[in-house]
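Project standup — Tuesday

K.O.: blocked on the structure for the chain from last sprint. Re-posting the sequence here as requested.
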Amino acid sequence: MIAIINYGLGNLTSIGNMFRRLGIDAVITDNRQDIKDASKLLLPGVGHFKKGMANLHESGLTDVLNREVTEKGKPILGICLGAQLMTKHSEEGDVDGLGWIDAVTVRFDKEKLNDLPIPHMGWSDISLSNNCELWEGLPAYPRFYFVHAYHFLFDDKSEVTATSRYGYDFACAFRKHNVFGAQFHPEKSHKFGMKVLENFSKIQD
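H.V.: unblocked you, prediction finished:
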């Protein structure tokens, strides 16, 4: 079973529906026992970084997620804000994240965008820059749906598994051991998004 973490932010129903279409057992939950019992976790998110971290702390989920992910090595996929929360710190709200990956979250640099609007919203190609189980069966440059004003900035580029371009190249997906993240929304990305979620469901502990 995949536990889709409900901490008050995210496209929970869309993600749940995608797993149902794939015939994959998944539950939307904020129950600590469900999280412990799940074989994999998914941390979604839409909204403000500071609010996301506050919701995790106030719900009491931070401790159980840290144990399951960092101590037990349970696979977890972060989507959009959920992936940003896995970084060490964010410029959005000037607040620390979960610190599971060697990256920070930064706002798009206006000076490099050539008058492109913020947020980056819509369909963009991604370039698969590192081997990752999530990309099995995808073409070299699949398209995914993005909505974000902030992106990952990595200390260790070896953790970056895909990049995209919006005015300039930026990391849009990562993997560090059992921790996976995607800035794009697979639940809104049709066949390629379904394939990513299906691939995640097949990852072994």
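K.O.: great, moving the ticket to review. The chain has a mean pLDDT of 96. The chain is about 25% helix and 30% strand.
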